[in-house]
Amino acid sequence: MNGDIERGRLGQSFDDFLEEQGTRERTSEIAIKRVIAHQLAEAMAAGDITKAELARKLETSRSQVDRLLDPDNDGVTLGALSRAAQAVGRSLRLELS
To answer: In this structure, which long-range contacts are made by residues 35-42, counting pairs with CB atoms below 8 Å and at least 24 apart in sequence?
Structure first.
């Protein structure tokens, strides 16, 4: 043994691992919701939009905006996310891959 480290793939990919565990789809859904919630919060900060102001624009309550921005709340509809994106001057884009 000469101590050289073999270069290349060390094992299965993370996607393969999640698929093997049966959690790939659920994990992807959670990750996507977290990214969208983060992007909405960033757009709000960039536009100096408060939660109360966003609630007024969406004609809803501040607690509903809190649920929308909660990265762990996966019960938010695509329609609600799209309306929130429009309210902060953005658009929601989805695609199949």
So the answer is: 36/81, 36/92, 37/68, 37/69, 37/70, 37/71, 38/71, 39/90, 40/68, 40/69, 40/81, 40/84, 40/85, 40/88, 40/90, 41/69
Whole-structure pTM value: 0.75
Measured between alpha carbons, how far is 49 from 63 in angstroms, rounded to an integer?
A: 16
Q: Is the dihedral of CA 20, 25, 31, 35 positive or negative?
A: positive
Which residue has 């649920």 as its token pair? Answer: 67
| DSSP conformational letter for 4 | P
Q: Where is pLDDT greater, at 28 or 2?
A: 28
Domains of the chain and any CATH numbers = 15-87 (1.10.260)
Q: For residue range 2-27, list pLDDT tens digits in order.
A: 556 666 666 678 778 877 888 778 88
